[in-house]
Amino acid sequence: MITPQTLKGFRDFLPADAIKRQYAITIIRKTFESFGFEPLETPALEYLETFSGAIGEDEKLFFKFEDQGGRNVALRYDQTVPTCRVIAQYPEDIKLPFKRYQIQTVWRSEKPQKGRYREFLQCDADIFGVENRTADAETVALSIQIYKNLGFKRPIALINDRALYTGVPYAAIVVIDKLGKIGEDGVVSELTRKGYTKDDAEKLLSDTKNKKPNKELETIFSYLDSYGMNDNYRFEPTLARSFSYSTGTIWEIIDPNFASGSLCGCERFDSLVSRFSNRSVSGVGFAVGFDRTIIAMEELNLFPPLTTATAVVVTVFNESLLPNAQKIASKLRAAGLATDLYPDPTVKLDKQIKYAVNKGAPYMIIQGPDEAAKDVLQLKT
């Protein structure tokens, strides 16, 4: 007998959890579309070279292998890189500017922990083909609006520009990006292990903390002010984002009442499409950390009462009345009501009633022989 179990870092979602996830996905999708973004889907499996050299230090987390055809492949690590491949592959079909959203699963071979898994859902939105920083501002505004629509009282975008790190080696940027996790002493210690003297490490961190917004960031701040989001952003000079393809604006979404880290990661990436094409196409966007967002919503009690989508359960009094029950269910479905017809007409009515109660359906219909003879039914709550 096979032991029923899931792999470490992978999960099943039973109905109660899946309903919560679908609630959040629906809000996120509607918010994407309210800003004029179109859906895109890409394969779960890509050539390994699609991702190699684009991610940076975390390429060790690829789920990669050689397939039966001898090709080196990898499961989708993120959604931005495959989208850049799509733009290069279909130049006649993808018209710029291109505003796309994508809600699909990604895989990373990392150590599982709270809010971090090896298989998880990402919800991305990006604008391609616009160099003006108003595109950055629009995506920042979208990311903030998503969290407002999910019920967060004051989502805050921490915003910086990778241009402010000009001259700083990528290895040092990766360390500074850990400031919120390991603290200033941890950053200095790790920088010294990478070859900096203690004085130089402390000076680099101090200089970073004292940087001021550049003109591009001022443009974004002005745009957000016009949206009435004055209280939903702040300049964060130590924000670094460790993706090697980040080239301009970077930001993360946090909530002051949620202490377990950022909810959304975001950046400009003007050189990524050129990995697949001779033409240069700028891009900017973000990925919602969906699982951490769900955890935050649970901790902050942001979910409304959620049960089943079923509006009514139609019971089957006995096998001879099954055709009547089917007709009732068909009429209700045609009227737009989610209707669950009990699937076994041999089960006693009391068990069907218990089924409807356990399911959480607000209504239940019973039609016995007497009701059928009069062409009426019982509606119970």
Automatic annotation (TrEMBL):
Reaction(s) this enzyme catalyzes, per UniProt: tRNA(His) + L-histidine + ATP = L-histidyl-tRNA(His) + AMP + diphosphate + H(+)
InterPro entries per record: aa-tRNA-synth_II, aa-tRNA-synth_II/BPL/LPL, Anticodon-bd, Anticodon-bd_dom_sf, His-tRNA-ligase, HisRS-like_core, HisRS/HisZ
Claim: Cytoplasm is one of the keywords in the record: no
Domain of life assignment: Bacteria
Coiled coil: none
Domain annotation Aminoacyl-transfer RNA synthetases class-II family profile: ranges: 28-323
Binding site for L-histidine: D78, Q79, T80, R108, Q122, D126, R241
Keyword vocabulary terms for this entry: Aminoacyl-tRNA synthetase, ATP-binding, Ligase, Nucleotide-binding, Protein biosynthesis
Gene Ontology CC, one term: cytoplasm
Group of enzyme by EC: ligase
Molecular function as annotated in GO: ATP binding; histidine-tRNA ligase activity
This enzyme's EC code(s): 6.1.1.21
GO BP, sorted A to Z: histidyl-tRNA aminoacylation
PANTHER family reported for this sequence: HISTIDINE--TRNA LIGASE, HISTIDYL-TRNA SYNTHETASE
Family: Belongs to the class-II aminoacyl-tRNA synthetase family.
NCBIfam families to which the protein is assigned, alphabetical: hisS
Protein name per its UniProtKB record: Histidine--tRNA ligase
